[in-house]
Amino acid sequence: MSPLNPQQVDELLRAAPGGAVYLVGAGGCGMSGLGHLLLDLGHAVAGSDLAVNEEVRQLRSRGAHIHVGHHAEQIRAPRPVMVVYSSAIRADNSELAAARELKVPIVRRATLLAALVRRQRGICVAGMHGKTTTSALLSFALEKLEARPSYAIGAFVPQLERHARFTPPSEPRAPLFVVETDESDGTLREFQPEHAVVLNVDAEHLDFYASLEAVCREFQAFGELTRGLLIFCADDPRLAELFAKRPGAISYGFNPLAAYRIETQTRHAPGPGRLTPAASRFNLWHGGEHLGVFTIGLLGEKNVSNAAAVVALLHQLGFQPAEITKAIAPFRGAARRQEELFADDRFRVFDDYAHHPQEIAATIAAFKSLIHRRLLVAFQPHRYTRTQHLLEEFSTCFNGVDKLWLTEVYAASEPEIPGVNGAVLAEAVQAKGQPVQFVPTLAELRVSVRAAMQPGDLVLFLGAGDITQAARELAAELNNEMPTNKEQFFAALSVVVSPATVLRQNEPLAKKTTLRVGGPADLYVEPASEMELAAVLKVCTEHNVPFVILGRGSNLLIKDGGVRGVVVSLGQPHFSRIEIVGEQLHCGAGASLKNVANEAKRRGLTGLEFLEGIPGSIGGALRMNAGAMGGWMFDVVEAIRFMDYTGGIHERKASEVNVEYRGCPLFKNHIALGAVLKGEPAPRELIEQRMAASNEKRWTSQPRKPSAGCIFKNPKTIPAGKLIDELGLKGTRVGGAVVSDVHGNFIVNEGNATAQDVLGLIEIVRQRAKSSRGIELETEVEILGE
To answer: What crossing angle do the helices spanning 29-40 and 109-117 adopt, rounded to 10°?
Structure first.
């Protein structure tokens, strides 16, 4: 079956109004955009992808049936009008094979998009770099100008309702339809737009095109298919050669011969260490006419150039300069295009999609104009072919960065090319004089970047792969850190608590844990009462300062950098009371489990003996559903009392609380205040015998040296301690941390261990379990801090 062209696809859709269209790879931004357009047109939409992401969730919320995983049977019923795929989908995909068998038309993503564009007044934005930002800005401006455009943009645009929309036709003219067109797979020629904007042409996608000349031929053919205006950048000599003599072609740029000529505004330099807002201003001249001063909320000459393209087109379409100025000024960009993820008086963190050397150099230049302190850059190469073809250009595009990290290549479904990897690229960059650190994994990258950050730094994550995850994790980590002005916050806390509350800065935490490792807390609080605990929580919320609750420090590993924000300990007498009422024990969250067990013994109540050997508190035991010697915390709980993060106090029966192995989900966002435990009458001598037997068993099977208790949760197939023993890991050492010879699931501190030693040992055990047995060990110990 020969491929359908856009006209045939349009006819097929019109012949089946409301018919279902199946999208293979529906979670991609381009494919999900098609889904939204089809839904706007009244078609049913189905499809599949390998995972559920935000794009899939949005389509599902509008009624689309998106499956997880590609399976042939999903095509068969109900039979779709057509099956659509993108160039990211392999030719041997099972759903495509089923469509061929059923003789269901198979259509490329760009062909369907081109078919929909034919229905309206298409404006295609093309070029190797800047398409997403330019098409987003143009769509946003037309919306502000009340033109109600249709649009299809290759990324989320927070200021638009969706990244794709098909506006119903209206009289007297069809709506404008702004489309970001992709040149990477030879589909530019599918489009026959009314107008076009061409930003640049470059030696890119050489895995598809034979040469730069072949790329230029593709753009030239695209220009010939454009019926009306063709706005092109005069600063690109290849575009000038392709389009300068074309009827209807209009140039823009910094070039003095451009029809729309840019003059940038002088920027006032910020003071030392000061971070300025992200914005650019420029003058634009049309021939001898000064159109005005325009402002955009993005940095750099490339974004100024892109904005000038939008202004030029809008001006040609009849909009007045004053209207255009107001329309573009509020624009703040598309997702991952100079996207600011975090900012405070210490740092700013940005995420950007730049992955080609020219894009990288332009983005770095833009950000260097923003600051007078350090620029830290982390980059993930995208595709082995691009890294191979442009290795020389990559080696120099990071010049001037104060600190640079490179990580491993993001394959994007490409097979690995021997001798092409992140380490080789790092060597090439280093050879050109730019210091660089190669960090193979994203987890290590985030940690390394955070460790190097100093107040005043601007951190920029670059790449088209999944490096955005590391950027967002770092931003989340910074959001959970204590602000630098601890003195003001300390003063604010001091006002709301009485002298009976313990309040300290930079409090060492190692001695407050059973493992005896870890750094300090920024602020440490022991509230004197529930009312003062509520007051502390309120101040934390008002100042956006994170807090954590510290019990008696068992089952806890605090990292060497300590804990940012506030550490709250319920160690005051008010929270540690134990009261016997009949056969019940009313216990505060701060009461030690040893004291609870001994008080029960003293009153002749059995069933709580197993608590005696757990080195923790009631609150911690509730949170972790602590267990030992065959007993579990919630086996003996009748009711609990707890506080929400606004200071509200609640009570609940144990039967109404969801518990699980080594956890109680309720206490992930609530604070335990106490519990009512149940016991059964028994002779004290019998209870003492049971406790003695339990102690003997414990101390013959568990180490006496400082530890956090069991490090790993037990896998379903084998106890973690037995697995570690069978792997021969007992006695394995990192620094002062050792896998216990007594019990393999304990790591002990021999006196000089650091948290990093313990974490290193944990990773050794996990890797050995994975490589030798295929078992993914999950930590039971809670890990806090940085």
So the answer is: 40
Q: What is the pTM of this model?
A: 0.59
Please, which residues bridge with residue 581 across strands?
Answer: 584
Domain membership of residue 1 (yes or no) is no
Strand 631-632 to 627-628 pairing = antiparallel
**8 A C-beta contact, residue 679 and residue 601:** no
- Positive or negative CA dihedral for 148, 150, 155, 156? positive
Tell me if 333 is assigned to some domain.
no
Per-residue pLDDT tens digits for 215-233:
888 888 898 999 999 999 9
Tokens of 479: 């959001």
Structure tokens at 393: 């250009």
Looking at the structure, tell me whether residues 132 and 215 fall in a common domain: yes
Q: Characterize 108-126 residue by residue with b for buried, 16 or more Cβ atoms within 10 angstroms of its Cβ, and e for exposed.
A: bbbbbbbbbbebbbbbbbb
Q: How far apart are CA 65 and CA 455, in angstroms?
A: 48
Pair 608, 719 in one domain = no
Q: Which of 699, 733, 749 is the last residue of a domain?
A: 699
Q: Of the residues 283, 299, 328, which one is the last residue of a structural domain?
A: 328
CATH code, 687:
3.30.465.10
3-state secondary structure 439-485: CCCHHHHHHHHHHHCCCCCEEEEECCCCHHHHHHHHHHHHHCCCCCC
- CATH code: domain of residue 498: 3.30.43.10
> How do beta strands 121-126 and 195-198 pair?
parallel
* Segment 286-322, tens digit of pLDDT: 988 999 999 988 888 888 999 999 999 999 999 999 9
Which domain range does residue 727 map to? 703-784
3-state per-residue secondary structure call for 555-579: CEEECCCCEEEEEEECCCHHHCCEE
Task: Specify the residue for token string 């089946």.
Answer: 16
Q: Are 128 and 202 in contact (CB under 8 A)?
A: yes
Q: What is the pLDDT of residues 340-351, one digit of tens each?
A: 888 877 788 999
- Into how many domains does the chain fold? 6
Tell me which amino acid residue 322 is. A
| Shared domain check, 653 and 598 | yes
State how far the Cα of 619 lies from the Cα of 637, in Å rounded to an integer: 12
Residue 152, pLDDT > 80, answer yes
Non-local (6+) Cβ contacts of 419 within 8 A are none
Q: Can you say whether the dihedral through the CA atoms of 719, 723, 726, 729 is positive or negative?
A: negative
Domain shared by 539 and 580, yes or no:
no
Does 552 lie in the same domain as 596?
Answer: no
What CA–CA distance (Å, rounded) separates 430 from 632? Answer: 56
Q: Is residue 652 part of a domain?
A: yes
Give the contacts of 172 (CB within 8 A, at least 6 positions apart).
none
Check which CATH number belongs to the domain holding 306 and give it: 3.40.1190.10
d(CA 98, CA 281): 54
- Strand 670-678 and strand 680-681: the pairing is unpaired
